[in-house]
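Now for a chain:

_____
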Amino acid sequence: MTAAATKRIFVCNNKRVTPTSCGLRLDASGAADQLTELLAERADTGTEYQVIKSKCLGRCQLGPVLGVFPDNAWYTYEDREDLGEIVSEHLENGRPVERLAIRRNTRSAA
């Protein structure tokens, strides 16, 4: 039997008191919980997922942000519908969500 692949989804949960803090603009902690719920509702695809609440991911001005690894895919999102689209398109079907994607080398001033 083959071990299940693991994908890790890092959700910025940083709450610096600055206008560019991802965690303050939307409830990033709540987003991580919503993402966990959405993943629990999906069909078993043989892939295990870990949703990790992280500190600053270095893309504050583009946030809120999350990163999917080992895919090295970065996304911004506004609401549960965006998170659902990331789950259904990227995580379940392997198709990047272009409208929410952040280019790999794009960084904000930290």
Summary: Strands lie at 5-12, 47-54, 65-69, 73-76, 101-102. The mean pLDDT is 81. The chain has one domain: 5-102. The longest helix spans residues 28-41.
